[in-house]
Design a protein that fits this description.
Length: 770
């Protein structure tokens, strides 16, 4: 009996699903898992011939390792009873519920999940990401909408954080079937609560759930699901019943009575305050895709791999459709750049665009031939201007233009400077006027077609005869990269922004080298592109060592300050929570804490509640809007210590804090080396990873500590506090490639092939396959 036991039982719950069921069962039959699979169809009183469709599809597939069992209810019994019926029939070592309006899109899904369960016997289940398609407004989004804080989640983490995985994503260990006795022991709670959340909680109580950050299933939200078909009172009743039964059946016992009671109270309060309007689908694509017909020239849905991309571009090349080719590249990059889940994943690595860079060069050559604007022999002139080729002239939040301004400052007065902008970002007239007053010529192109932009870049750059070109493209500015040619200048270098994520041009054949702003960048490019120049130009803080900083004495109150331009960062779950860190700071000897930037009402209320609970005055915590002149604000507000508290750091607040003479306390626990800000800071700045470590640091702050750290700041600013200070510090080494022992010994995990594999994975996750 044991030898014949299936590996996976796929339980399909069916009530009049003839419209969808063929697609669902085909996705099971397409699985590559060679082990025995049993499909258990629970036909819960259907009257549309659904069961016959399933039987026909299984017979046609003729898969010897897949067996079909159909259990029929004469009358509908409901989701909970139908599931229990299917579970009482499932003899597989693992089971998976697949509703008939869902389907799987990765043929290796079951193989991957089974292998993980076999390798880790302690797991209760394995989940993955699901594509949610709203059939009403035609939007597409991912679920979970935001990545969980960990890849392996315990019951308590799932319950407290409200983590939910869709039915079509969950493979569970079948602990309810005793193969020796051929008997079943089904938890009574399955009869009491319907839906997939209860299954997740039950199995998470038996072992942790492993999450795979890949999209391997699709759910068509047509408004007829267990959740989506309910009105709001019905949804409240469903949730209340779920948490009531969890408590009564003892699933919360492991949390302890106090914590379980607090958790239940919080969840019920959330349910009471919850409104349907807070459930909004997040479209995977930018709004222009649905509002501008020009963006529908190509069907992005057909691109599910880099091979698909190559085939479609080849078709465009054969038909001389250069504009369409650039459009499909731009749309692909836009989808990758603006997707919530992929953007979060990319924050901890730099993702190069090999095939996209190559396709830009290929299409650019064809466009140059068409318009007769390709440069001839190398056009660089040793006495020519320094040209900055950028996607837009704007003081943007990502630091793209800020990086350009940094390098511009280093060349002021040393060479003629010109800026070419393809205008993918909105121009700032005031900034352009300011640059022109400094004698910098700003050339902007306002054409809308990518092909014409690329031709314009080639033509204008050929006219400049530049001695040096610095290029800083936006993540989807394919026109800029298509228009850039190696013959345009003797030296062409790519600026690497202090930001993160997907970027163009990193392996473009027209780039001679890279400007690295951090030690990690040097190691990254030295490993990824050996043979190309890597030039190190550190960031500078725009502050001077001669700042008139107020004296700090024993009577000076210790005032800490945090700055965050994006309130959503504070909402995320890290190894600490902002609302718990602030009270701990105030209990460590700090008289007042100031936060600069927006805070949601929920976070603000939690902080005030925690302060009151600990007996701390609410007025000890202040919130101020983000000011126009941050360094001036930091000097005037009375702050004495700057705390860089977020795993996703911001370099502008760091620079402002140093300019204001504030000692910096760095948070480092979640930082990838690429994101580390300690290389922008003075040596010896303390680093914390837990609230206990932060409290320990703060308790040892005194006048001597402040004096030592201020001395370190002044020394740091004397070398890199301004463009002039940096120039004097670098001397003859400016624009000299880093070689040999000067390359930092920093671990860079990605290789060329790993990054290509990553781009392939991102492509398949970001754009949907048919």
């Amino acid at each position: 009996m044991a030898a014949l036991r299936p590996t996976v039982s796929v339980i399909m719950l069916c009530y009049n699903e003839a419209v969808f069921i063929r697609r669902a069962v085909r996705s099971v039959l397409a699985q590559t898992l060679d082990a025995p699979i049993e499909i258990i169809l629970v036909d819960d009183g259907s009257a549309d011939g659904s069961a016959g469709i399933v039987r026909q599809e299984v017979d046609l597939a003729a898969r010897t390792n897949i067996q079909l069992t159909i259990v029929t209810h004469e009358e509908p019994t409901g989701n909970a009873a139908a599931f229990v019926t299917g579970l009482k029939t499932a003899r597989g070592r693992y089971y998976h519920v697949l509703d008939c309006d869902d389907y799987w899109i990765d043929p290796d899904k079951l193989t991957m999940q089974v292998n993980l369960m076999e390798a880790q016997p302690h797991l209760g289940g394995v989940a993955h990401r699901t594509i949610m398609r709203n059939q009403i407004d035609r939007t597409e989004s991912f679920h979970p909408e935001h990545e969980p804080s960990k890849t392996i989640l315990t019951f308590e983490e799932i319950a407290v954080e409200g983590v939910y995985f869709h039915t079509s994503a969950m493979l569970y260990r079948n602990v309810f079937y005793n193969a020796g006795l051929d008997s079943f022991d089904i938890p009574e709670i399955f009869n009491e609560v319907r839906g997939d959340t209860i299954r997740l909680y039950v199995h998470a109580s038996q072992g942790p759930i492993l999450y795979i950050p890949q999209s391997m299933s699709v759910y068509d939200d047509h408004g007829g699901g267990i959740w989506t078909s309910l009105d709001w009172p019905g949804k409240q009743d469903l949730l209340r019943n779920l948490y009531d039964k969890l408590q009564k059946r003892g699933y919360l016992a492991g949390m302890g009575d106090a914590q379980a009671s607090c958790y239940l109270s919080q969840r019920l309060m959330e349910i009471a305050a919850y409104a349907p309007g807070s459930l909004r689908s997040v479209s995977l694509y930018p709004e222009q895709v649905t509002t501008q017909p020009r963006y529908r020239l190509t069907n992005i849905s057909h691109i599910g791999s880099l091979r698909d991309l190559e085939i479609q571009i080849d078709t465009f090349v054969q038909n001389a459709q250069h504009e369409d080719g650039l459009q499909v590249l731009q749309r692909l990059l836009t989808a990758i750049s603006y997707d919530v889940n992929l953007r979060k994943a990319s924050q901890f690595r730099r993702i190069a665009s090999f095939e996209v860079d190559w396709q830009c060069e290929r299409l650019g050559t064809l466009i140059g031939q068409k318009y007769d604007v390709l440069p001839g022999a190398p056009a660089g002139d040793p006495d020519g201007p320094v040209v900055f080729l950028v996607s837009g002239v704007v003081d943007d939040a990502e630091g793209l233009w800020q990086e350009t301004k940094d390098i511009i400052d280093l060349f002021r007065g040393q060479a003629e400077i010109k800026i070419l902008s393809t205008e993918l970002l909105t121009s700032s007239p005031e900034l352009c006027a300011e640059l022109q007053e400094d004698g910098i010529e700003v050339l902007r192109n306002n054409d809308t077609l990518q092909e014409e932009k690329a031709a314009w870049v080639m033509w204008y750059l050929a006219k400049q005869k530049a001695c040096q070109i610095f290029v800083n493209p936006a993540r989807n500015d394919v026109a800029l990269m298509a228009g850039l040619r190696r013959e345009h200048a003797a030296r062409i270098h790519l600026l690497t922004a202090l930001g993160y994520g997907f970027s163009l041009g990193r392996l473009s054949g027209v780039i001679d080298g890279f400007i690295a702003r951090r030690p990690y960048d040097i190691s990254y490019y030295a490993k990824l592109t050996p043979g190309r120049e890597v030039i190190y130009i550190p960031s500078y803080s725009r502050g001077t060592a001669a700042q008139d900083w107020p004296d700090v004495t024993e009577q000076t109150p210790m005032v800490s300050i945090t700055v965050c331009s994006d309130a959503s960062k504070i909402e995320q779950n890290y190894d600490y929570r902002f609302d718990r860190a602030i009270p701990a700071v105030l209990e460590s000897g700090v008289q007042k804490h100031i936060h600069v930037g927006d805070l949601s009402d929920a976070v603000l209320n939690r902080i005030r509640k925690e302060l009151a609970f600990r007996g701390l005055p609410i007025e000890c915590f202040e919130v101020h809007p983000y000011p126009e002149d941050l360094p001036a604000f930091l000097q005037s507000c009375g702050a004495t210590i700057f705390m860089q508290t977020f795993p996703l750091p911001e370099h502008r607040p760091m620079q402002a804090a140093l300019a204001a003479g504030l000692p910096v306390i760095l948070h480092y626990s979640y930082m990838h080396p690429m994101l580390a800000l300690d290389d922008m800071c003075y040596p010896g700045a303390p680093i914390w990873s837990t609230i206990q470590e932060l409290s320990h640091i703060l308790r040892h702050v005194d006048v001597t500590w402040m004096a030592e750290h201020r001395a370190g700041i002044k020394d740091h600013l004397s070398r890199s506090g301004s463009a002039q200070a940096l120039l004097e510090h670098l001397g003859e080494s400016l624009m000299t490639p880093v070689t040999g022992e000067d390359i930092p010994d920093i671990v860079v995990p990605e290789t060329y092939h790993e990054l290509r594999s990553l781009l392939t994975q991102m492509t398949s996750l970001t754009v949907f396959r048919r």
